[in-house]
Fold cAMP-dependent protein kinase.
Amino acid sequence: MPPTRRGRSKQASADPQSPELPPSLSPKTEKAKGFALIAASKVGKRYVGAYDGDFFYPKLHVPAELVMPVDQRPPPLTLRDLEAVRNLGQGGESMVLMARTTRNEHPLDRPGTLYAMKVVRKKMRRKIEHPKYHQLAIESERISLGVLPWNAFITGIVQIFEDRVNLYTMLEMAPGGNLLQLLSRKGKLSTHTAAFYYANVVLAIEAVHAADYVHCDIKPANFLLGEDGYLILTDFGLSARAHDDRKSWENGTPAYMPPEMVHFDGPPLSGPSNRPAAEVCEERKAIDWYCSGCLLFEMLANKLAFGGDNPLEVLRRKQQKVLNWPDGMRVGTHLKGLVESLLEPDPRRRPALDDVLSHPWLKGIDWERLRNKQYLPPFLPDKWKLSDTLYQGGPLPKQSQVPGLQVGKQHPLKVRTEWIN
């Protein structure tokens, strides 16, 4: 006669090779060891085996209870687990704070980890956006960063939060400041250094356009220097899909905007068009290449590409391609040709990605090596701590301005950098 279920259980328990769970342990103790005991009736099934990571217990002394492993992961971070410790900078409708984690309740918690926290006031976005597209506008940066695949030349999004006043986007922290600050300290860059940084810009634009997005705000202030000395593109607040007819394509930074973004020459970029969709998308992507030309000029000359006493004068210079080259500045033929082609007023005549990658001025760049970051950058942030960052964006906001985020003490600023010749 075959043994009953109870009989088989007794035989298995008597097996000297089978480790046994001490019968005196309470459920609380077993949970601490990696077990959670749940009544078997909740599942309608009895399990008599368990695994705690070290041993497999084939039979339990309490077969009426279900044994499940406990989730060892920490709970997700919330705003209350973060503290603002520095103001990194402010824009027209947002501010960027340095935030550090404070939670230390779980073995995997890492208090003191630093992130960049972009804070956008909901009220501000409601003022500047059409009500029909308001929700799309306030989510644009989150959507863009969430859709874009990870890339070494684009800032990574970590988490998103909100409270009754603000939207919060937590991003990777880049400790080296931004390219605009670097230019303000170093002045004009050599052609070799400018080529390295512009090649970084090209790869960032390549990644954005490959996902069918347009950044629309390429400028030195939006390129951060990572810990490895390479550039990282940030601030996707104005970005959109290249085929998005709902977006207002006239928003950007005036000094870097191409002429077509203000509707003076050529067909408008916004709204539906009778032209082929591919043609419209390419013209919208040409916005980023124009902005990159302004950035390249600024790295070489340490001044804006187009100067003027008023916006109309600046626009006239852009339409006529009157560049603001410094007196006596010597520029090579290939370099000057690249800058002037990027700053072409007609978007249909600007170079595309393949034209830039194969341009004679950049022929010394091994693009695959650059993508793998195998070049030594000309500038490296030194070993840094909380007080060693290059950022200085003013005082911290009041607690009432960021009700969901704890505001800590402002930390002193120390600049420690290293320039590699």
